[in-house]
Automatic annotation (TrEMBL):
Record's GO cellular component terms: dynein complex
GO BP annotations, alphabetical order: microtubule-based movement
Listed GO MF terms: dynein intermediate chain binding; dynein light intermediate chain binding
All copies of domain Dynein heavy chain C-terminal, residue ranges: 1-63
UniProt lineage: Eukaryota, Metazoa, Spiralia, Gnathifera, Rotifera
InterPro entries xrefs: DHC, Dynein_C
Pfam families: Dynein_C
Protein name per UniProt: Dynein heavy chain C-terminal domain-containing protein
Length: 64
């Protein structure tokens, strides 16, 4: 969860203009737009063929 939390904070800061948008954040943004799970997240959690929304919901249920 640490990786997900950190990347979401960076994305938020970039969108607010508080941080420069890095290539990693651009990739994250594109994954959100395409509704796919970012590779950096699946590398640290678990692989899945689900869409981003379903994967995130499942990941939260596993965490609980």
């Amino acid at each position: 969860l640490r990786e997900i939390r950190q990347s979401l904070k960076e994305l938020d800061g970039g969108l607010k203009g508080e941080l420069a948008i890095s290539s990693e954040i651009e990739i994250l943004q594109e994954c959100f737009y395409l509704n796919i799970v970012p590779a950096g997240w699946t590398n640290r959690a678990y692989p899945s063929l689900h869409s981003l929304g379903l994967w995130f919901h499942d990941m939260l249920n596993r965490y609980r």
